[in-house]
Design a protein that fits this description.
alpha+beta
């Protein structure tokens, strides 16, 4: 019995010590490789010719995109075409919505720094270069007031998520105060060995302007990715 108990204590300790990345920093070039990998998958987004888009504000099950050689077709959840007025609110090339664009995702105003391991991912922190925010008749950039974190798989150099938060409330201009700012985008392959695309995103922003509080909270998911037919 003593030997069994001793093994039950030692084995988890051995597994913990053998687990990669618990005490070591990731390879020095991992972030740079992640930029190149994101660009590769951004280019490969053209392989996607359809997906389902479900924003939080749509109560009917979201929308379906069919991307052909010409302009994309936007359908409702029952595969019926949208009226022209509603369809005009969506981009002509919906693949812009799912691309893993490295210039927006990973461009940094400072040197990205490794801060911790989390669920097997290397977490890097940096300040974004540009982060425009508009609403209520105002428009400004909040990049100087927030901190971005990305989770990178050390084995594949693929970005799993990007999260942006404001450490504290701030004023982007004289009449607006941002009380809370948090956004997150999660990525996954569209299909096995397929391009890495946006899987879901969420945002929670609270702003005060002209004595009015504005709560900007929402989420959206992307699923059912289909490949373009060969040829």
């Amino acid at each position: 019995m003593k030997n069994i108990l001793r093994c039950s204590v030692i084995l988890p300790a051995l597994l913990l010590s053998a687990s990669p990345a618990l005490g070591d920093e990731p390879p020095a070039d991992l972030f740079q490789r992640a930029v190149a990998t994101a660009q590769l998958h951004n280019d490969r987004a053209g392989e996607v010719c359809g997906f389902a888009y479900a924003p939080h504000w749509n109560e009917d099950g979201g929308f379906i995109v069919e991307q052909g050689e010409g302009a994309a077709r936007w359908l409702d959840a029952r595969s019926q075409p949208l009226d022209e007025e509603l369809a005009a609110n969506f981009p002509e090339d919906p693949r812009q919505m799912i691309r893993q664009s490295p210039d927006r995702l990973l461009e940094s105003a400072d040197t990205p720094r490794f801060v911790r391991w989390e669920d097997g991912l290397a977490i890097y922190q940096f300040q974004p270069v540009s982060l425009p925010l508009a609403g209520g008749g105002f428009s400004f950039d909040v990049a100087e007031n927030v901190v971005a974190e990305v989770g990178i798989d050390p084995d594949t150099a693929m970005v799993a998520f990007r999260e942006v938060k404001a450490p504290s409330s701030f004023r982007p201009n004289a009449v607006v105060r941002i009380r809370d700012y948090e956004t997150r985008v999660n990525f996954r392959p569209a299909w096995p060995d397929g391009p890495v695309v946006v899987a879901d995103q969420r945002y929670a922003i609270v702003a005060v302007a002209m004595l009015q509080t504005h709560n900007l909270t929402g989420s959206s998911t992307y699923s059912g990715f289909t490949r373009c037919e060969a040829g």
